[in-house]
Design goal:
45% of the residues lie in helices and 11% in strands. By secondary structure, the chain is of the alpha/beta class. The radius of gyration is 20 Å and the shape is globular. It starts with a strand and ends with a helix.
Length: 350
């Protein structure tokens, strides 16, 4: 048993428990590869009827990836490490989305970034009263990735653009409404439900514990979200918000002011490309990889991490101003990678 993750079989379940509560269960490269190895081993194991992933602690299921190593290698000019990390992480995300057995995720507290990738692509996603789901990557010079761009593209109306650009947190009802979760079950019932899942191997037991969550904010805000975030690009969104003197627009502008203009513009473009196109997880991850492949060398990622995590001055010096983003910048980050493109195992075999 490792210190950061516990993987074992129990009853009819293959169990994965993140065990870094003091680090908000941030996922390391080693944890990522351990989860993938377990899924590969259990795929054809008749003793495993379902996979159950959960985490220790009350504050977070998983608040994101452990990015210290990414920063250190990137600062040293080693971009290969990050590219390999993202490729391997995305391969895991695709396996979860395509897994042939039920994949049950219990998502308490913070579920962000990499935490979304190992939970929200599962077949059965359970939230509770403390759940806060978000894709805040634009604030550190990335884009919503780990397949999050696909979830955002499938969210109601223009919610995807709003959530992706602002990094707004979703409570349990909002997460279900936007397609990041399926069932709300109060945390006090989780131990009993978990035991039933392990004993039976039947994800149908979740329905017997599910309740209606307290109403969130996004349903009531949908009309405003659609009105302001329906433009062709980030500039259109900004113009719409700036023309309004309402509280919603003011809050959205404040959030946008903290993000990387390049990342936010690319996030909007990615969501537009994926929406309504019949896109699957493979296409979304491939598009995300175009950005993350370039994120250290030509994007804002290293500066975003410096400002948020390393120096903590919260004063990133982005490459472009919010109103001075060149027209070619988005295309430059999202153009095909040619021989360096992400290839998932299923695609390589066809």
């Amino acid at each position: 048993m490792r210190d950061d993750i516990h993987i074992h079989k129990e009853g009819r379940a293959g169990r994965i428990t993140l065990t870094r509560p003091k680090a908000l269960n941030a996922m390391s490269y080693e944890m990522c590869t351990a989860i993938e190895a377990a899924l590969d081993a259990w795929r054809d194991d008749p003793e495993v009827a379902l996979v159950l992933i959960d985490a220790e602690g009350d504050k977070a299921f998983c608040a994101g990836g452990d990015i210290q190593q990414l920063y250190d290698t990137g600062r040293a000019g080693d971009f290969a490490y990050g590219r390999r990390f993202w490729a391997d992480e995305y391969r895991l995300n695709a396996k979860i989305a395509r897994y042939p057995k039920p994949y049950v995720a219990l998502m308490q507290g913070f579920v962000m970034g990499g935490g979304v990738g190992i939970s929200c692509h599962g077949s059965h996603r359970v939230v509770c009263d403390s759940t806060q789901v978000a894709m805040p990557e634009c604030g550190i010079g990335l884009v919503p990735d780990v397949g999050g761009s696909l979830l955002l593209a499938r969210a109601p109306g223009r919610s995807g653009e709003y959530l992706g650009v602002t990094g707004t947190r979703m409570g349990p009802d909002d997460a279900i409404y936007c397609g990041f979760a399926d069932s709300y079950i109060p945390k006090l019932k989780w131990d009993e439900m978990r035991a039933a899942l392990i004993e039976s191997g039947d994800p149908g037991v979740i329905d017997g514990y599910a309740e209606t969550p307290p109403e969130g904010d996004l349903r009531a805000q949908q009309a405003e979200i659609d009105a302001h975030f329906g433009g062709e690009g980030l500039h259109d969104i900004l113009n719409s918000l700036r023309a309004s003197d309402g509280d919603f627009a003011s809050g959205a502008l404040k959030a946008i002011g903290r993000g990387s203009p390049l990342s936010m513009a690319c996030a909007v473009e990615m969501i537009h490309r994926l929406r309504g196109s019949g896109a699957d997880i493979g296409r979304a991850l491939g598009l995300e990889y175009r950005f993350t492949y370039r994120a250290m060398e030509t994007g804002d990622f290293l500066e975003g991490i410096r400002a948020a995590i390393i120096d903590r001055d919260r004063n990133p010096q982005w490459k472009h101003g919010l109103d001075a983003l060149p027209g070619y910048a988005v295309s430059q980050m999202l153009m095909p990678l040619g021989p360096d493109a992400l290839i998932l195992e299923e695609e390589a075999e066809t």
